[in-house]
Amino acid sequence: MDKTNTPLVSIVLITYNSARYVLETLESVKNQTWENLELIVTDDGSTDDTAEICSNWLVENQERFHKVQLIRVAKNTGIPANCNRGMRAVSGQWLKTLSGDDILLNNCISDNLQYARRFPDASFIVSDVKEIDDDSALIRDEVVNEGVIFIDGMSSVKKQLKAYTRWPVFLNVPTFFCRTEVMEKVGYCDEDFKIYEDTTMVIRMMEQGVRMHYMQRPTVAYRIHRNSISRSEKVNDRREKEAFRVFSKYRVKHLNIFNPLDLSVYYECWLRFKYKGFYGRRGDSILRKLSLFYWYMKFNGMKSY
């Protein structure tokens, strides 16, 4: 098989207690218009029937794929470690990660590879999402992500890195598509972080000179539900503590206190992570407006900032 024209794409399906949704996710992988696929399912110690559902499905559908594999562990280890187990097992030239509750649109892989053929230097591609609810009903058909547009508009990867460390915005993570060699180069996910593994990964890719490319086309149906770790109120405290550790380990080294915009980012982070307020009142919405970076972003049209 011609590896240039029909490269093998490895899809790593990340699961944990995904029994309610995972069959729909698996079927979306099977229904890809791109034929040359490898499917690695890595389950992080699910306590429901997720692993059994996946195992049975893989046996029944293995002929559809170049290779299938199910990786299981007895104890939950967290998203980054689960991702790493799957990514280290792949053999494809390109890598697509997928959560056990999201859905690939039929042309997801084909559209990404077509984009890569048009832009040969592209090795890390993000795209648009559609949003669905718990029952897979469409919430939004078109989702405009100002952050993706802003980062993509930077003229160089160096400027992308600066912009992203100032504003580590959600970059449509479910759509990430990259060359396998890029992930090998950066050393996979940082397992010190259990929630913001995507943020640390993007920063390390950009540090290695890998530019984020943006394909303006939806490739994934992203499920919006309360149990998602990015939205659950139960982990708010953990999320904020980890966000501060990301700031300390990855963002600070790219911020210069003698740069007025960077200094104001320090100020905003102090407000978010350290400022306790007075008599139980924080007044963040007012104090944030004292930040030069806040007004810089508003001037550049970032309504969501």
Give a short synopsis of this structure.
Helices cover 39% and strands 18% of the residues. It is built from twelve helices and nine strands.
Q: What letter string, H or E per element, gives the SSE order?
A: EHEHEHEEHEEHHEHHEHHHH
The N- and C-terminal alpha carbons lie at a distance of: 47 Å
Overall spatial form: globular
**Describe the biggest sheet?**
9 strands, mixed
Low-confidence spans: pLDDT under 50, at least 5 residues?
none
Helicity range: 25-40%
Q: Give me the CATH fold name of the largest domain.
A: Spore Coat Polysaccharide Biosynthesis Protein SpsA, Chain A
The CATH superfamily of the largest domain is identified as: Spore Coat Polysaccharide Biosynthesis Protein SpsA, Chain A
CATH class of the largest domain, anyone?
A: Alpha Beta
Describe this structure in words.
With 305 residues, the chain is α/β, with parallel strands linked by helices. It has two domains: 215 residues, Alpha-Beta Complex (Spore Coat Polysaccharide Biosynthesis Protein SpsA, Chain A), CATH 3.90.550.10; 67 residues, no CATH class. Strands 1, 2, 3, 4, 5, 6, 7, 8 and 9 form a nine-stranded mixed sheet that branches.
